[in-house]
Amino acid sequence: MSKPPRLTLPSAARAYHLSTDRGSFAVHEAGEPVRGTALLVPGFTGSKEDFIALLEPLAAAGYRVVAVDGRGQYETPGPREESAYGLEELARDVLAQARALGPDRVHLVGHSLGGLVSRAAVLRDASPFASLTLLSSGPAAIAEEQQARTKLLVAALEAMGDDMPGIWAAMRAHDAQDAAQDSPELTHFLRERWLATVPEQLIVTGRALICEPDRVDELARVALPKLVLSGAVDYAWPVPLMDAMARRLDARRVIVPETEHSPNAEDPATTAAALASFWDSTTGV
């Protein structure tokens, strides 16, 4: 999971609920659309807070930036029904969010699972988008080792979805060494985010990470500027796999040194600079 480097919004940002024709979504927003608007879609077990450190530098670069909690994620409610959380349903939500942020086309960024959702949105209808960035997101299902971990989590949620505190305690015990490095403030936030996320959302999106087919050739046929951005190491999708995906997409490729699966949180300054440079290039700035 992504761990935000800070939890307080910058002074120039605001939190609110974005109204769309598919419901209301919790967002963080910063900046004015001098050069454009960007929509940031988080990954599995994530939330809008995963992008919190990108808001200020991207706003300073002239962009209106909106990070969203998807349906059933953290501060956006969702039903206790698995049918609500298939990738195509979540893609329709992203399209609705983009329409609500219009009328100009928006730069779409999807982190990890959010990349698969964003890809599905673009394949359904690319017209609301000015570009697509796949951030630490690969061509198909996650790596086999991570599939095994995700299958265990999905099985636990299927059996114990009404005991989210118990599942959280087991997860933290399993990753005790990593958890010990978190501050009390971050530990509290991560737990509260987990408890607020709808179990069915995690079950269905977890299955998607395990089973998603390769749709890169379909995406390559969409005439949209594309960026594949990642850390130097990635446990979900190996970096060489993302390199190959970028070539298949004829996409710009950026690797943020000394980061892993969440360069947006691990080195937000470099990540923001790469995003702004890419977006500028799509408009000839």
Automatic annotation (TrEMBL):
InterPro entries: AB_hydrolase, AB_hydrolase_1, AB_hydrolase_fold
Keywords: Hydrolase
Coiled coil regions in record: none
A molecular function GO annotation: hydrolase activity
Pfam families: Abhydrolase_1
SUPFAM superfamilies: alpha/beta-Hydrolases
Residue ranges of domain AB hydrolase-1 in the record: 39-179
PANTHER family: AB HYDROLASE-1 DOMAIN-CONTAINING PROTEIN, HYDROLASE, ALPHA/BETA FOLD FAMILY PROTEIN
Name of the protein this chain belongs to: Alpha/beta hydrolase
Species this chain originates from: Streptomyces yangpuensis
